[in-house]
Amino acid sequence: MIAVLKNGTTEEQMNTLIDWLKAQNLQVHVSHGADYTVLGLIGDTRDVDMDLIGSLDIVETVKRVSEPFKQCSRKFHPEDTVIEIGGGDCDLVKIGGGNFAAIAGPCSVESKEQIIEVAKAVKASGAKLLRGGAFKPRTSPYDFQGLKADGIELLLEAKRATGMPIVTEIMNAAHLPLFEDVDLIQVGARNMQNFELLKALGKIKKPILLKRGLAATMKELLMSAEYIMAGGNEQVILCERGIRTYETYTRNTLDLSAVPQLQELSHLPVVVDPSHATGVRTLVPPMAAAAVAAGADGLMIEVHTDPAHAMCDGAQSLTPAMFDEVMQKVTKLREVL
């Protein structure tokens, strides 16, 4: 349920109403817009008297929200959310609300020289955040699983060398202490519905990049975001990375319709990962451009200095020169749009 307050409502009047609503065992989420204030009521609202609330002098309208996701719903929060990443010991990057950011780097951190070389190259081309896998969920137990804690240390060295905020994937809530200096924590597709992990991430004050599951609906993605936000962490970025279909020429099928649809349903930023979506290097540039045209708030692209010898996902990784070309096209396309 949402209650839209009238213009001119004082802070004291709003707080009095909020206190009364909380006394009804409801949580209240406050969203301030330029010309309105929305109170989102979370909990069992079946016995709440809508007519009574609607009759109050300070209330413009009262509506029930039918969607099961509440806090990430645009009805609860009409304005776009802007997520701030980094700052302090690195660059401050904003995503959402018209702020666009490219996230780039190798699938896996392999060495100090590799990650710093890639970081410097992608930053020179316009990337704002450095990605790199330290813990790697792999289909085969015999494939390279990442450098783990050592990989995070190498990412931190690259951050110190370039000033770029870092992004890396978490697989287990027990690993959270290792992620204390990670600027944006990624939840991979395979863990999108790892609800215990999502609950743990809801208790920290750090931005989360939540990837869509291999066969997840948009509703399921939003419900996973709701798990994080219900815990108190409202800093969530959604990522479309392709879904599994019967097509075999691509690794997955990139669902670009998810970008405008998610933006219609939710106030959270939406970025697109064309690398994992296609799994094919030559398809990444056109799909990156298509994602920008669809209105994505950012891109996540794999870049490696020597893709042919990459320890993970070399077939979908761009060289720094290819990434530079993509960023030039993306910049021109965003200027036109």
Describe this structure in words.
- The chain is an alpha/beta fold and 337 residues long.
- It is built from 10 helices and 14 strands.
- It has helices at residues 11-22, 50-54, 112-124, 149-162, 195-201, 218-230, 258-265, 274-278, 284-293, 320-336; strands at 2-5, 27-32, 37-42, 59-63, 83-86, 92-95, 101-105, 129-131, 166-170, 184-187, 208-211, 236-240, 270-272, 298-302.
- The protein has an 8-stranded parallel β-barrel with strand order 7-8-9-10-11-12-13-14, surrounded by 5 helices. Strands 2-3-1-4 form a 4-stranded antiparallel sheet. Strands 5-6 form a two-stranded antiparallel sheet.
- Helix 5 packs across helix 6 (218-230).
- The chain starts with a strand and ends with a helix.
Q: What is the radius of gyration?
A: 21 Å
DSSP helix count? 10
Strand content: 15-25%
Approximate shape: elongated
Output mean pLDDT: 94
Give structural attributes:
337 residues; alpha/beta; eight-stranded parallel β-barrel; four-stranded antiparallel beta sheet; 10 helices; 31% helix
